[in-house]
Design a protein that fits this description.
The chain is α/β, with parallel strands linked by helices. 45% of the residues lie in helices and 13% in strands. The longest helix is centred in the N-terminal third of the chain and has 23 residues.
């Protein structure tokens, strides 16, 4: 088996009908969709784009899609257990299946990575947690009058130029670099007026060579505007119990493996994971560093699971020598499995 890692899609990758193909083609995926319940199954298979824009809908649906695609991949590669179970990070004993050498998830996708690695004990527990997270982030994204407070935009161009433009556009408002996606893509988040100012300055093109693309989101995710949500998440996490990962997990907040977080938080696995989750909600996603760390660890193939292939595209921009594959439907699953089995 090839040396591979699995990465899980995040919010923003959703699209109407995203789960239909896997539901029909893969029994393991179908089991995940059925566990999610009729409402979320509807969102994954039949909901329109307008409904899928709502954070409280998007996050549970994308998490479910991530775990369904992962279950389908494992099933097709020969694993004997179900994705999301306590045993899913153990060797299957089939003799042909090899676990990934690492997992990571983009923002929301990190919760799927935790589930795959046994940090979160089951799909059902992960779904409960994601529902809480989604509601807290939605509430933090609105002001006292119910209006959207924050938003996000992708800055396309050299990172130094994007960071310079942030400084010019910030004024007295919140405006921060929050997703370090590739050498030429840095996402910014903050107050709506500040993000609009950033976009306007980019459009004027004062020699910086930055293009701004507005993102369809309901808040300034991973920025300091999410601090109220993070504080409430810390309280909600008291009802959960987490374990050390059984697979290497690469973290959004550092771009490196889980063990690196001991530089920031100490204590039991349960305490460390909770600290990471709270930090992650209000801190940047270091995605470029994550892929670079995986490559440095000897990983040669990255498989994106879940809706779309945004992360696949980023992998190719970060390190063209890595093989980038994805699993979002029956066709892409078959192509990925064929490659992984040496076809």
């Amino acid at each position: 088996m090839r040396k591979y890692a699995v990465v899980f899609a995040g919010q923003g990758a959703q699209k109407p009908g995203m789960g239909k193909s896997l539901y029909e083609a893969a029994p393991a995926a179908r089991a995940i969709f059925d566990l999610a319940g009729e409402d979320i199954k509807y969102d994954c298979i039949e909901a329109d784009a307008e409904r899928l824009k709502q954070t409280e809908v998007t996050q549970p649906a994308v998490y479910t899609m991530d775990m369904a695609a992962y279950a389908a991949l494992r099933e097709a590669l020969g694993a004997s257990d179900n994705a999301g179970s306590e045993s899913n990070a153990k060797k299957s004993g089939t003799g042909s299946f090899a676990e990934p050498l690492g997992v990571a998830g983009f923002s929301l996708g990190e919760y799927a990575a935790y589930t795959a690695a046994g940090v979160i004990s089951s799909f059902e527990e992960g779904l409960d947690l994601v529902k809480i997270r989604a509601l807290l982030m939605k509430e933090a994204g609105t002001d006292a009058g119910g209006n959207q407070r924050g938003t996000m935009a992708a800055g396309i161009g050299k990172r130094e130029a994007v960071l310079e433009l942030i400084q010019k556009a910030r004024a007295d408002d919140v405006l921060e670099a929050v997703n370090f996606n590739s050498p030429t893509q840095t996402v910014v988040a903050g107050d709506v007026i500040a993000v609009e100012r950033f976009s306007a300055l980019a459009a004027e093109d004062r020699g910086l060579g930055v293009k701004a693309i507005k993102l369809t989101v309901s808040g300034a995710f991973h920025s300091s505007l999410m601090k109220p949500a993070a504080e409430r998440l810390a309280e909600a996490l008291k009802d959960f119990d987490f374990k050390d990962p059984s697979l290497p997990v690469y973290l959004n907040v550092t771009g490196g493996p889980y063990e690196d977080y001991e530089k920031i938080a100490i204590g039991s696995a349960n305490a460390k994971v909770k600290a990471i989750m709270v930090c992650q909600m209000q801190s940047p996603v270091y995605w470029q560093q994550t892929i670079e760390a995986m490559a440095s660890a000897g990983i040669e193939t990255i498989i994106e699971v879940g809706p779309g292939k945004t992360l696949t595209g980023l992998v190719k921009k970060i390190n063209p020598e890595l093989v980038a594959l994805h699993v979002e439907d029956a066709e892409s699953m078959n192509e990925t499995v064929d490659y992984m089995k040496g076809g």
